[in-house]
What we know:
Bound molecules: D-ribose
Strand content: 15-25%
Radius of gyration: 14 Å
Strand order of the largest sheet: 2-1-3-5-4
Structural class: alpha/beta
Number of helices: 6
Distance between the termini: 36 Å
Order of helices and strands: EHEHEHEHEHH
Shape: globular
Largest sheet: 5 strands, parallel
Amino acid sequence: MKEIIPIACDHGGFAMKQYIIEKLKDNAYEVKDYGTYSEESVDYPDFIHPLAKDIEDGVYPLGIILCGSGNGAQMTANKHHNVRAALCWNVELGKLARQHNNANILSLPGRFISHELAWEIVQAYLTTPFEGGRHQKRIDKIEL
Ligand code: RB5
């Protein structure tokens, strides 16, 4: 069965989202697209909260969110229990977000990196396992 990747963005991340969706489909993933669906100005929490809620509820193990900077999307997602959203702008950060933080959402800055680099980060994020061990102990201390 194909792995389903949920993805959400605002207008600042729309073009990059469309690029990543095509790449995911080309690489045998299925996609659940939470919008937004155009460049029209929107408020990122309206699109990020529904995805983050589904990660919180265990509907999907890993998700991808985007906005112009990646910050608003990440801040919104991290309001959800057991969501660890990581803002990543290079491949090493994408790997570390999984290895050390067991990040379950990747946040990308749609206006600050190339689409090609974003896809490399997505691949690193989706294929890198969590290392566990000492990192699990630290993650256990995050929730309030
Ligand atoms: C939208 O203009 C922009 O503020 C948004 O995409 C994001 O960067 C917010 O953090």
